[in-house]
Design brief:
The complex is a heterodimer of chains A (163) and B (357). Chain A has 163 residues and is mostly helical. In chain A, 62% of the residues lie in helices and 2% in strands. Chain A has helices at residues 14-32, 59-71, 94-162; one strand at 5-7. In chain A, helix 2 runs antiparallel to helix 3. The longest helix of chain A has 69 residues, at 94-162. The termini of chain A are far apart. By secondary structure, chain B is an alpha/beta fold. Chain B is 41% helix and 17% strand. Chain B has helices at residues 18-32, 77-82, 106-121, 134-142, 157-160, 166-173, 191-204, 221-231, 246-255, 270-277, 290-294, 306-318, 320-334, 339-352, and strands spanning 8-13, 39-44, 53-54, 66-71, 87-92, 126-131, 148-150, 178-182, 209-213, 238-242, 258-261, 282-285, 299-301. Chain B has a seven-stranded parallel sheet. A six-stranded parallel sheet of chain B has the order 10-9-8-11-12-13, sandwiched between helices. In chain B, helix 6 (166-173) packs parallel to helix 9 (246-255) and helix 10 (270-277) packs across helix 13. The longest helix of chain B has 16 residues, at 106-121. Chain B starts with 7 loop residues before the first strand and ends in a 5-residue tail after the last helix. The chains are: A mainly alpha (163), B alpha/beta (357). At the A-B interface, strand 1 and helix 1 of A face helix 7, helix 8, strand 13, helix 12 and helix 13 of B. Strand 1 (5-7) of chain A pairs antiparallel with strand 13 of chain B.
């Protein structure tokens, strides 16, 4: 890690301050242990839609959707990690070396597939949330249209009934 | 040739917005030069409604050959101006790349793409193009603009010398040290990276706080930032203030210990200059226009090594002599953004176009 900090100062140079923060970070790691913070990326503004309060809705749809949103974290990194055998020294023989290389190869493909599947799951959840949010007004509008049709049908029928 | 009317056009106008403030400043300069000058916008916020006219109210007068257009996003304004027989003095404020909205906000994604297309369409109608940073000028040149120059956004000195709010100041000083970032809550500003950095800083300074000043602009993003802070146990340490009054903004600048930016796109970065004027050391991720706005001042980093950055934050907070030197250098740099300098550049541009004596 060099050349990533630029500082214009009469005493500290960019190189000196870069080396200083690097050294302090290593020291703190020894004193306090390594701190690894990871955060999920921002991708999905659509959260779990809530059932409408003012009209009937499909209970099953909202139930399954809430289960899906509860089960689906925002982002899943592939959980598989490097096998300890992969870090074993050459001294343990050619079998260990072979095992390590095969293990790395499997990890590469499994991680790749797992990440892809995780992404698909997230997209599906977001799409379902979007769709559910989108169809709710449509349902209301359809109900109103149906009601209008019924009213008009009754209007037309009445003169005949009278006659 | 000289003319007596020179109007400005922009997409949206609201109080406190950097582009709107610059338009007001330019209108003042134009009126001082004897021009009849108004500002027209497609969207006019009620905070400036009495001072800015609706785009539809524009009527070109006889002999009106030029117009000033501030370009920053796709809108109806360029299409409207293309119907007018006027040559444009374009002021380019940069367009946030569409990729930052791709997964997030389809409307802004489309507006950003439209803005880029319109920048190309405006080229032939433009007689002179000014950019508010050398980074933006390079974008103009890469889009085929020939006559270009740099007109930095002006910092209105008198607005930043006003007294601060004592109540807000005591609230900020309640726990120290305090980091500050100013900018709307938007994915390209990367406020979540500031929260992550706070996770590391917290190990060094358990009482440290991060103030995120800015409107809750992007739907859901503010909640996401709050969730990230809560998940790291920093809900109390990360304060999303929303948009604040100018006096409170000044108070944050003058009371905080360090301004930190992790933003991955800035077309200019006005808060960097505001911090410098208010004697607040600046630490910023050096992308887009940030390096050209900061010049040879402050501290710029190009990699987000969080553990090391937390140590850098610690040094910048605790090394008093270093802070004094940084602040002095920043104060010197910020002079280039004050009115006398920027006004001279603007008037020089009008003279070069034969629009003013």
């Amino acid at each position: 890690m060099s050349g990533w900090i630029t500082l214009y100062d009469s005493i500290w140079t960019s190189e000196k301050i870069t080396a200083e923060v690097d050294s302090r970070a290593r020291l703190r790691e020894v004193e306090c242990g390594q701190l690894e913070i990871s955060i999920p990326p921002f991708n999905y503004p659509k959260s779990n839609p809530q059932p409408p309060q003012d009209r009937p809705y499909n209970i099953d749809l909202y139930h399954h959707l809430s289960l899906l949103n509860a089960a689906q974290p925002l982002h899943v990194n592939a959980a598989l990690k490097e096998n300890s055998a992969a870090r074993t020294s050459w001294l343990r023989g050619i079998w260990v070396k072979l095992h390590s290389q095969i293990n790395d190869l499997v990890l590469f493909y499994v991680n790749h597939v797992a990440q892809q599947q995780s992404r698909i799951n997230e997209e599906l959840t977001a799409s379902l949330n979007e769709l559910t949010d989108g169809i709710t007004p449509e349902i209301k509008s359809r109900q109103e249209l149906n009601q209008n049709l019924r009213d008009e049908f009754l209007e037309e029928k009445r003169p005949g009934e009278k006659g | 040739m000289s003319q007596s009317t020179l109007h400005q056009f922009l997409t949206g106008a609201t109080a406190g917005d950097a582009i709107t403030s610059q338009a007001f400043m330019i209108r003042g300069w134009l009126r001082d030069l004897g021009f009849k000058s108004e500002i027209f916008a497609q969207y006019v916020h009620e905070s400036v409604a009495g001072d800015i006219k609706q785009l539809a109210a524009f009527r070109r007068t006889r002999g009106e050959a030029w117009a000033i257009y501030h370009h920053s996003i796709g809108s109806e304004v360029p299409d409207f101006l293309s119907q007018q027989p006027v040559t444009l003095l374009l002021i380019y404020h940069n367009i946030t790349p569409a990729e930052f909205f791709e997964q997030v906000d389809p409307r802004w994604f489309n507006l950003a793409r439209k803005g880029v297309a319109q920048l190309n369409n405006l080229r032939d109608q433009t007689g002179m193009a000014l950019a508010d940073s050398s980074f933006n000028e390079l974008e103009l040149i890469s889009n085929g603009y020939k006559a270009t120059s740099v007109l930095p956004i002006t910092l209105r000195q008198e607005h930043y010398d006003e007294p601060i709010n004592a109540i807000t100041e005591s609230e900020i000083r309640r726990s120290e040290p305090n980091l500050l970032f100013v900018g709307r809550l938007a994915p390209n500003k990367k406020q979540e990276d500031l929260v992550k950095l706070m996770g590391y800083v917290h190990c060094i300074h358990p009482a440290a706080r991060l103030f995120l000043i800015g409107s809750r602009w992007e739907i859901g993003y503010d909640k996401y930032v709050e969730q990230v802070a809560a998940s790291l146990g920093l809900a109390e340490m990360v304060v999303l203030t929303g948009k604040v009054s100018h006096q409170d903004l000044l108070t944050y600048y003058r009371t905080a210990d360090l301004y930190v930016s992790m933003s991955e796109h800035e077309g200019f970065g006005m808060p960097l200059i505001e911090s410098m004027y208010c004697e607040l050391p600046v630490l910023a991720y050096g992308v887009a226009a940030v390096p050209s706005t900061m010049g040879t001042t402050g501290v710029i980093f190009t990699e987000k090594h969080f553990a090391e950055l937390a140590e850098l934050v610690n040094i910048l907070i605790t090394d008093k002599p270093l802070r004094r030197r940084l602040i002095a250098r920043q104060k010197e740099h910020v002079q280039a953004f004050l009115e006398p300098q920027t006004r001279r550049i603007f008037e020089g541009t009008l003279q070069s176009l034969n629009l003013a004596k």
